[in-house]
Design brief:
Structural class: alpha/beta
Radius of gyration: 18 Å
Largest sheet: 5 strands, mixed
Number of helices: 10
CATH class: Alpha Beta
Shape: globular
Order of helices and strands: HHEEEHHHEHEHHHH
CATH topology: Nucleotidyltransferase, domain 5
CATH superfamily: Ribonuclease H-like superfamily/Ribonuclease H
Number of strands: 5
Length: about 240
């Protein structure tokens, strides 16, 4: 069993037998089909807080997530964790996300926090606005503390939403702009869970509009994202 885990995850991780068993159970979960109807698929909308915005230098501090099931946000199916930090981030950074030095130093040990996130996630597709940042922070932390590269299905609303609303795409680009346009409120900006919930509202609105265009699967929304990425590269 241990040799199999080393082959699968690499040799740079340090897990207890109980943690290894939980991680193996997560990997054994069946992959979610991308062709299932949107309302029949559990999506996990995620947002992260980090020590800064530099993808090469900064690191993950907190993860917030909420599930969308049966076309609705399931507040009972949400997740929030602050990863324990050896050193707290800068004062300027703390002013942005509000996670103080004490909360950072007394957070959940990273291995346990990340296994907990994976157990919550299961194999559900991930949704975010500007996926690259969230994806990079989560992948790097999982590689560092769990020893493997997370391969998962992501949907980027930064391309899906303008792809579904092309008439608005030149005027609206930022998450705040789209949310303001559609009347989506966020009462605690830069709180990971609050940001995930408001992003989930945007996702549900996009999904409803997609169905009007006869797009009713995660795979279909991925096609919208891919097409809009091509449009963005051309402009």
């Amino acid at each position: 069993m241990l040799n199999w885990l080393r082959y699968f995850f690499g040799s740079g991780f340090s897990l207890t037998p109980e943690q290894s068993s939980r991680l193996a159970a997560w990997h054994a979960l069946p992959k979610v089909t991308l062709n299932g109807k949107l309302d029949a698929t559990r999506f996990v909308v995620v947002d992260v807080e980090s020590s800064g915005l530099n993808l090469a230098r900064d690191h993950l501090i907190a993860i917030g997530a909420v599930a969308v099931k049966d076309g609705k946000i399931d507040m009972a199916d949400s997740f929030e964790v602050v990863l324990q930090q050896a050193e707290s981030s800068s004062h300027e950074n703390i002013l942005i996300h509000g996670i103080g030095g004490s909360a950072q130093r007394n957070g959940v040990p990273p291995v346990e926090a990340l296994i907990g996130f994976l157990e919550y996630l299961q194999k559900s597709p991930l949704v975010a606005f500007h996926v690259t940042f969230d994806q990079t922070m989560i992948r790097r932390a999982i590689k560092q503390f769990l020893g493997f590269r997370l391969q998962h299905d992501w949907l980027d609303l930064a391309y899906v939403v303008p792809g579904l609303f092309p008439e608005l795409s030149k005027e609206y680009r930022l998450l705040d702009q789209w949310q303001d346009h559609f009347g989506i409120q966020n009462f605690s900006r830069h709180n990971a869970v609050a940001d995930a919930i408001s992003t989930a509202q945007l996702f549900m609105l996009a999904a409803r509009h997609a169905r009007k265009k006869r797009i009713d699967s995660f795979h279909g929304l991925l096609h919208v994202e891919k097409a809009q990425r091509w449009v963005s590269w051309q402009t």
